[in-house]
Design brief:
Blueprint: H1 4-20, H2 29-52, H3 57-78, H4 97-110, H5 120-141, H6 146-169, H7 171-175, H8 177-198, H9 207-222
Helix pairs in contact: 1-5, 1-6, 2-5, 2-8, 2-9, 3-4, 3-8, 4-6
Length: about 220
C-alpha cells in the first residue's frame, strides 16, 4: 500500500479530470485547504518529534530551514504547482520540462519518511489528489499532446514510491535519517503553510475553510 496509494491517487485524479473535464480549479480550494491543514498537522505530530529524537537540535533546525529554501528554489521552476498554482499557457505545445523536473524532485523527497511513518502516507495522498487534479486540468486544457500529458502524470505518480523504495533499500537513508526527515519537514512546512495562507482569499473570514482546516488538524491528531 505504501507504493500503491500515491500512484493510484495521481492516476485516478488524472482519469477523473479526463472523464469529467472540469474547467474551474477554484472548486478544489476547499480540498486544498483541508490537505494543507492535514499535511501540516501530521508533520507536526509525527515527523517533527522523530527528527529531534536523539539528534542535535540545531542541526535538525538547519536542515528544516534548508528544506524550506529548497522548496522555494523548486518553485522558481514549478511556479507553485505543489500548492495548486499551475501556469501553463493554453497555447503552449512544448513539454514543460522545468515544471516536470521540479515536481519530480519534490515528489521523490516526499516518499522518504513514509518508510518509518505509516500515517504520513495519508497526508501525502490527500496533498497529491487536489494537486494532481489541478495539474491535469491544465495539462489537458493546453495544447500539449495527450501521450506527453500521460507520460508526465505517470512519472509524477511514480516519484513518491521511488523515494520510499530508496529510503527502505539504501543504507545512507537510515544513516542520515534525521537530516533527510528534517529536510522533508521543511518542504512540508513551506507547502502546507502557503496552501493555508493562500486559501484565505485576501485574508477574509470564511467559515467553510475554517471548518475544513479544523477537520484536517483533528483527523491528523487521531490517526
Amino acid at each position: 500500500m505504501t507504493y500503491l496509494l500515491p500512484i493510484l491517487g495521481v492516476l485516478l485524479s488524472f482519469l477523473f479530470v479526463f472523464i469529467t473535464k472540469p474547467k474551474n480549479k477554484e472548486n478544489f480550494k476547499l480540498l486544498l485547504a483541508f490537505s494543507g491543514a492535514f499535511l501540516l498537522a501530521l508533520t507536526v505530530f509525527e515527523l517533527l518529534p522523530s527528527a529531534y529524537e536523539d539528534s542535535n537540535a540545531k542541526t535538525v533546525g538547519v536542515f528544516i530551514m534548508l528544506g524550506i529554501l529548497l522548496q522555494i528554489f523548486l518553485e522558481f521552476f514549478s511556479k507553485g504547482a505543489e500548492h495548486g498554482h499551475v501556469h501553463i499557457d493554453s497555447e503552449e505545445s512544448d513539454f514543460p520540462w522545468l515544471l516536470f523536473l521540479s515536481l519530480c524532485i519534490h515528489s521523490f523527497l516526499e516518499g522518504f519518511p513514509i518508510e518509518n511513518h505509516d500515517t504520513i502516507i495519508y497526508g501525502i495522498l490527500i496533498h497529491k489528489i487536489p494537486i494532481a487534479i489541478i495539474l491535469s486540468i491544465f495539462l489537458l486544457g493546453s495544447k500539449i499532446k495527450l501521450p506527453n500529458a500521460i507520460f508526465f502524470i505517470v512519472l509524477f505518480a511514480l516519484m513518491t514510491p521511488l523515494g520510499s523504495y530508496v529510503s527502505a533499500t539504501f543504507d545512507f537513508a537510515s544513516q542520515y535519517y534525521a537530516a533527510i526527515t528534517a529536510l522533508v519537514i521543511g518542504v512540508f512546512f513551506h507547502i502546507s503553510t502557503v496552501i493555508l495562507f493562500e486559501s484565505s482569499e485576501g485574508h477574509k473570514f470564511n467559515i467553510r475553510k475554517l471548518a475544513v482546516i479544523i477537520a484536517g488538524i483533528t483527523i491528523a491528531y487521531f490517526l
